[in-house]
Amino acid sequence: MKRLIIISAVLASVFTPAMAQNNPYGIDDQCYEFFRMAESLINDLSNDAFDYANETLLKRATEVGDEKARTLHYVEKLKRECRVARHMENREEANARVDALRTQTVSVALETGYTQYLYYAYSLSETYYVNTRQEVHAQALLQDMLDIATRRGDEYGLWESHVYLAKLYQRQNDYFNTRKHLRIALSIFDSSEDESIRRQSVSRMCCDLSDTYETGTDSSRFYIRKAEDFAKLHYDSLRVNYYKAQLAAFDRKVAEYHRYRDYCLNDHEFADQIKYGDLLFSTADALLEGAPRDTVIARAKKVNGRPQLLYIRSLAIACQREDIAIWMGSKIIVTFYSDISNLNDMKMEEMSASINQHHFKMELERQKSIKRMLLIALCVVGAALLAALSALFKKKNNKQHK
């Protein structure tokens, strides 16, 4: 593997002019090749090929004075550590390693002036904590990220912080805070001239914002229209059409609903992009067709996403299916309770582990303190015994001399 990397490096030096055209980071071309190698090996934990490629990136960056490439070396190192740490049994040690590398990456980003990687380092760490069921730590980390951006008056940092906080609260099904942070992020986007912000696609954010309002309300419709205006990529348009299908069904515009629904279902990316989307359409079909209660419920039972459950209830009300709306209400309550319970259990486990670890540390310090006190006591007693023996010895010698 290392030999392959060396050969690749040689090829990179030979074909530098061609590589420059495909170097979006604008770093030294050989640095970019080593960066690409490291990136491709980031998930391969079976050997040290990643370390070799990434260290070679640092060496080359240092030689040519490429500060951005040097910063990317530490970003890759942190990214790799987050992968490795997820599989470690000692969670405290894993956290310490991730935190140490994040601190190092942040320091380098501040030193080189590429502060966007400061926030990226925080987002990588936050993802690690989420993936290891440490929700409390992840939230604290994002708040710290927001505090840094606020103190620095850094628009890009504020943007990133609110985007990630919105994702965290959305995952927790906290619509109030999701809405708050998404609206702040969109406000920053609307007024920003920062190219790093302006090139972002905010179509999905607008769709997510529409989910925080009841289906069919003015606010819900407003953000779906806004999502359509911002759509840049294929999956943006796919998601917008998914939401337009929902609105059409809610408005009882059946032909329009079928058009948008078929567009989505015939797209090979739909299943990957929209979780439970096909199940939502199946349930919507049954409702619009006036299917029997058991048929609708049998389909709705397979849906578990909170936005989809709320939508099906709203659609049932629009279709004047009170029997389905009541059943959906009970399912939503059970699902909401389960989600909240699971989240609270996860947070309690995390806090309990932290407290137990704290108690372990306190007990360790207590044991060390006791040992120190015993050692001091033994020294004092030993010194007293030596003094007594010395005095006794002197007294005995004096008697012999007399």
Your description of this structure?
With 402 residues, the chain is mostly helical. It has a domain at 1-133. Helix content is 82%, strand content 0%. It has helices at 2-14, 16-20, 29-40, 49-64, 67-86, 91-112, 116-131, 135-152, 155-171, 175-191, 195-198, 203-211, 218-230, 234-250, 254-265, 270-273, 277-288, 293-300, 306-318, 322-401. Helix 3 packs antiparallel against helix 4 (49-64), helix 5 (67-86) runs antiparallel to helix 6 and helix 9 (155-171) runs antiparallel to helix 10. The radius of gyration is 31 Å and the shape is elongated. The model is unreliable at 9-19 (pLDDT under 50).
**Terminal CA distance:** 89 Å
Whole-angstrom Rg: 31 Å
Q: What is the N-to-C order of secondary-structure elements (H for helix, E for strand)?
A: HHHHHHHHHHHHHHHHHHHH
Fraction of helical residues: over 70%
Provide the β-strand percentage band.
under 5%
Instruction: Work out the helix count.
Output: 20
Global mean pLDDT? 85
Task: Report low-confidence residues grouped into runs of 5 or more.
Answer: 9-19
